[in-house]
Specification:
Structural class: alpha+beta
Strand content: 5-15%
Helix content: 25-40%
Shape: globular
C-alpha cells in the first residue's frame, strides 16, 4: 500500500503549492484564504523545491523590510527540506523536530 492509498488520506485536501516565481504577497494571500501556515514550492514537474512558512515571511520579509509584492517566494523559502520515509519511526522524528526546532 502506498502512502497516497491510505484511507485516512482520502478526505485530506491537496497541499497548497506555488512556483518559485510567485510573489510572497500572492502566496501569503493563498495561505490566508485556505488558513494554511505554509506553502510548498514546486517546479513545473511538481518536484518540491522548498517550503515557505509563516515564520519565513516574518523573519525574511517583515523583519528585513522587504516588499512582499515584488519579493519572490524563491528568495525567502526554506530550500533544505527534511523528509521522512514510510519506515521511519515517529518517535525519532518527534525528537528531531524538537531538537532542531521545526
Amino acid at each position: 500500500m502506498q502512502i497516497k492509498d491510505r484511507p485516512e488520506y482520502k478526505n485530506k485536501p491537496s497541499p497548497l503549492t506555488c512556483t518559485p516565481e510567485t510573489t510572497v504577497l500572492a502566496a501569503a494571500k493563498l495561505m490566508a484564504n485556505k488558513n494554511y501556515g505554509s506553502i510548498v514550492v514546486i517546479n513545473n514537474k511538481k518536484e518540491v523545491l522548498g517550503l515557505m512558512t509563516e515564520r519565513d515571511i516574518f523573519r525574511r520579509v517583515v523583519a528585513e523590510e522587504l516588499d512582499p509584492s515584488i519579493t519572490f517566494v524563491s528568495k525567502v523559502m526554506t530550500a533544505e527540506i527534511r523528509t521522512a520515509s514510510e519506515n521511519d519511526k515517529l518517535s525519532d522524528w518527534l525528537r528531531i523536530m524538537s531538537n532542531e526546532r521545526f
